Amino acid sequence: MRGANAWAPLCLLLAAATQLSRQQSPERPVFTCGGILTGESGFIGSEGFPGVYPPNSKCTWKITVPEGKVVVLNFRFIDLESDNLCRYDFVDVYNGHANGQRIGRFCGTFRPGALVSSSNKMMVQMISDTNTAGNGFMAMFSAAEPNERGDQYCGGRLDRPSGSFKTPNWPDRDYPAGVTCVWHIVAPKNQLIELKFEKFDVERDNYCRYDYMAVFNGGEINDAERIGKYCGDSPP
User: Fold this and answer.
1) Of the candidates 118, 144, 170, which is a domain's last residue?
2) Which CATH number belongs to the domain containing residue 69 in this structure?
3) Buried b or exposed e, range 196-224, using 16+ CB within 10 angstroms
4) Are residues 100 and 159 in the same domain?
5) Of 115, 144, 173, which closes a domain?
6) Domains in the chain: how many in total?
7) Strand, coil or helix: what is 25?
8) Is there a contact between 107 and 82 (Cβ–Cβ < 8 Å)?
9) What is the pLDDT of residue 142?
10) How many CA atoms does the CB half-sphere of 186 hold within 13 Å?
11) What's the pLDDT at 149?
């Protein structure tokens, strides 16, 4: 089977296995509406997270990491009012500290892959309307060397009529261990999404327990909506 049809939107997840060590934070941070953050790493979150965020709010976080490095933002949790166009409650992520170059807009429960700035500055802005719905978001920022960007980070929102995407390092080298990539594909209303894998080479296992590509119907990583889970070297 060379392709798959699904109602829009569609969510794809690539997971590569690695060994992780778990550490518990000594205390939970208190999240407020916006702020100025500097340093190698830290956390930001919606006001009152993990409680329900307030209505009619506009919160702005300005992140700065050391000169010569770039900002990497990883969403650990996101739960905002859902809308295909993210018109009501949403989080915008910008390159730099102005709203000229937007990296992405996110809402619902779709958790994007790592977002990377082109400089040592990034701005995050959350907007909510009168109808509050959800527990907000929490994200971690960290500093990275600019030349690491292409090797480690992947995923994102794809909303053009057609396009392509690939795993990190393809086709020159193997994808890195321990990476999770999420692509969110959105088609126009009342249209289908056709997905074709031209090349496929993921660690083989009879049950796809280690490295795998999963495809979900809809914009959430929900096993009830999973179309398939694939590994090995045969295109689905």
Assistant:
1) 144
2) 2.60.120.290
3) eeeeebbbeeeebeebbbbbbbbbbbeee
4) no
5) 144
6) 2
7) coil
8) yes
9) 95
10) 14
11) 46
Residue ranges in 65-161 assigned as alpha helix (H) = 149-152
Cβ-contact 132, 110 below 8 angstroms: no
pLDDT of residue 194: 92
Report yes or no on 198 lying in a domain.
yes
- Res 151: pLDDT: 45
* Both tokens assigned to 183: 């692509």
Tokens representing 97 are 């500290």
Query: Does any domain span residue 140?
Result: yes
Q: Please list the ranges in the chain whose pLDDT falls under 50.
A: 1-8, 18-25, 149-152
What is the distance between the alpha carbons of residues 174 and 233, in angstroms, rounded to a whole number? 13
Tally of CB atoms within 10 A around 105? 15
For residue 133, the 8-state DSSP code is -
Assess whether 125 and 155 both reside in one domain.
Answer: no
How is residue 219 written in tokens?
């914009």
User: In one letter, which amino acid is 60?
Assistant: T
If asked whether residues 56 and 120 sit together in one domain, one would say yes
DSSP letter, residue 225: G
Q: Which domain holds residue 171?
A: 3-20+151-230
